[in-house]
Write a structure and sequence with these properties.
This protein has 289 residues and is of the alpha/beta class. It contains 10 helices and 12 strands.
Length: 289
């Protein structure tokens, strides 16, 4: 695209950000809609996070995405949070709202989380309904919380397996009170085999970075545990497009998915928040590939 004097800006705040596919994905979406919009990488050091986020409003940005390692700490700089990001305790999207305040007032920074809704949209695309399903999430970080929130919102039963017991328990405590349905259970990753001996998960989600390039031969699934046949194994990792977890699970008769669909869906939801326009998903996928 050609930058003009009227080009509107959106950024990606994280550290590092050079590996991200989001600039290509959003640039393609904006071009297809004939929008004069540029999505720029903003590598920000942790000590500069507050200044960088406040600077979005000062520099006229429409907003930004927030990625690792700031999804949680960026929350502190928001004027308002949508209800889901407040419960999840993490944001991945900032909208600079100039309409909310008067002419002289500073714009408001609104924080959103589109990871949970992007994940659900991708499950919907795959025709997979979480209602009353047994779901096991491996990992208990920010993405695990978002996925657990989405599944609980759609009336699934959720168990979070973490290597640090306290982390899993805090996810369960945080989400337990929020939605008014059955709270998530928490177990240790080392107890997954035991869990599978009495419960057959319909969905297994890898929300750890294990298996991500360049550590292709790693998997969060315990080596001593058989995969539950027929389950959907959803790896949030999308580089490589087929992880060891996905390969092993497919060989054992499971359905598998990588995190590419969620990445595109969460990006599309953020794009809609900034521009009010729905992007073409196929164009976004093609740009990522
Ligand atoms: P995070 O907040 O750092 O959480 C990572 C979780 O994985 C933590 O519970 C961590 O436990 C655990 N973990 C890390 N290394 C482990 C290991 N060797 N063995 C067992 N557990 C381990 O990261 P996140 O933001 O949740 O992201 C998790 C993954 O999801 C990343 O690969 C990210 O790229 C992916 N993701 C994908 C999308 C998408 O759109 N597809 C969106 C968001 C995230 P400790 O705290 O003990 O280290």
């Amino acid at each position: 695209m050609r930058i003009s004097g009227a080009t509107q800006l959106v950024g990606l705040i994280g550290w590092p950000v050079s590996h991200s596919g989001s600039p290509a994905m959003h640039a393609a979406a904006a071009e297809a809609l004939n929008l004069d919009l540029a999505y720029v990488p903003l590598p920000v050091r942790s000590q500069d996070l507050g200044q960088a986020i406040r600077g979005l409003a000062a520099l006229g940005f429409l907003g930004a995405n927030v990625t690792i390692p700031y999804k949680q700490s960026a929350l502190d700089y928001m004027d308002e949070l949508d209800p889901a990001s407040e419960v999840i305790g993490a944001i991945n999207t900032i909208v600079v709202d100039r309409k909310g305040g008067s002419e002289s007032a500073s714009p408001l920074l609104r924080g959103y989380n589109t990871d949970w809704s992007g994940f659900l949209r991708d499950l919907d695309e795959q025709g997979w309904n979480p209602e009353n399903k047994e779901c096991l999430i491996l990992g208990a970080g920010g993405a695990a919380r978002a996925v657990a929130y989405g599944l609980l919102a759609r009336w699934a039963r959720v168990t979070v397996a973490s290597r640090r017991k306290k982390q899993g328990e805090s996810v369960a405590a945080r989400l337990g009170a929020s939605l008014g349905n059955e709270p998530p259970h928490s177990i240790e990753l080392s107890s997954v085999s035991d869990y599978c001996s009495h419960t057959k998960p319909d969905l297994i989600v890898n929300a750890t970075p294990l298996g991500m390039a360049p550590k292709f031969d790693h998997s969060a699934w315990p080596a001593d545990t058989a995969y539950p046949e027929g389950a959907l194994v959803y790896d949030l990792v999308y580089q490589p497009v087929e992880t060891k977890l996905m390969r092993d699970a497919r060989a054992a008769g499971c359905h598998v998915s990588n995190g590419l669909g969620m990445l595109v869906q969460q990006g599309a939801l953020a794009f809609e928040l900034w521009t009010g326009k729905r992007p073409d998903m196929e164009i976004m996928v093609a740009a990522l590939e």
